[in-house]
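HUMAN: Would you supply a protein with fold tokens?

ASSISTANT:
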Amino acid sequence: MYRVLVADDEAEVIELLRLYLEKDGFELCIASDGLTALGIVETEKLDCAILDVMMPELNGFQLLKKIREKSNIPVIMLTARTSSSDKVLGLDMGADDYVTKPFDPLELCARVKANIRRFSSDSSLKTSSIITAGPLKLDLEQCLLFKNEKQIEITSTEFHVLQLFMSNPNRVFTKAQISAAGWGENTYVEDNCIMVTLSKLRTKLGSELWIKNIRGLGYRMEIQE
């Protein structure tokens, strides 16, 4: 049974998510403020987190930062804010997905399943548990990235996008292919969300590895030893 943190100060939202997620077999950890949610993060083993942006004590962005200091579990931001700048901020800080209120609970449940499915290791689908490219090593079993044997913190979305590129160096991928790898084939992702994720990867990976834009075609990873 997968365990999901739901942190939101609206009782109606919590009860709605409890109804749908528990029906799908998820075990929920509930918090109505950021500090309570942080305590759950520090003491419980979680498979996914749904965070409201506007919460008392710690807001969703602050809590997301705390989570990313110790875990790369999928994090879905849930908020009434609809501006692109807020979405970019959440993704830039390490969120894997962004859902605006009011939302379709069935769609949100599907996003939770898709994010957990992408994050979870499935050794039966992997030909090797380790992918290497230049100074990088991607551990598919533990969902960890290393550069020159030093671990680099990445989100689950970044992990899956990087897995696509590292498995196929010098191959050009379209935005649609990158979206399918990082967010799932049936999830709509705005172009700026893809661009933010690629920008974050470039920053984290450094000068030895570049994800280049091939105008009119897509993106390609080029490795420099």
Q: What stands out?
A: Confidence is low (pLDDT under 50) at residues 122-127. The chain has eight helices and twelve strands. Residues 62 and 127 are 38 Å apart (CA to CA). The helical segments are 11-23, 34-43, 60-68, 84-92, 105-119, 156-167, 175-183, 191-205.
